[in-house]
């Protein structure tokens, strides 16, 4: 089954794909409670988290949720920060473009 960006189409009733990082072959499944005003909020406000710890009371993750997840990091948008520079390991440079009709499996 293909996963949809529409949070209503995911087969688990309580978890939805919110971000993906194809270079790591990972997806982040998040509760719909972190889909706020049409945007995913998967970042943690660590300053707020540690403030809550000092309050010596029970608290939930909604109380230290960070700002919205950047659009480039949301499901289906590639997972790469466009401001980052790609690093290639020694001997591993960018692959040469293949002209139409050359090589490949097709």
Describe this structure in words.
With 106 residues, the protein is mainly beta. Helices cover 8% and strands 16% of the residues. The chain contains 1 helix and 4 strands. The strands form 2 sheets. A two-stranded antiparallel ribbon has the order 1-2. A two-stranded antiparallel sheet has the order 3-4. It is elongated and about 60 Å long.
C-alpha-based Rg, rounded = 19 Å
Derived structural class: mainly beta
Beta-strand proportion: 15-25%
User: What is the count of β-strands?
Assistant: 4
Principal-axes shape call: elongated
Question: What is the arithmetic mean of pLDDT?
Answer: 77
Please outline the major beta sheet: 2 strands, antiparallel
Q: How many DSSP helices?
A: 1
**N/C terminus separation:** 24 Å
Tell me the series of helices and strands, N- to C-terminal: EEEEH
Low-confidence stretches: 1-5
Brief summary:
The chain is mostly beta strands. The chain contains 1 helix and 4 strands, in the order ββββα.
Helices, strands, pairings?
Elements: E1 15-21, E2 26-31, E3 35-36, E4 39-40, H1 46-54
Antiparallel strand pairs: 1-2, 3-4
Top keywords for this entry?
106 residues; disordered N terminus; two-stranded antiparallel ribbon; mainly beta; 4 strands
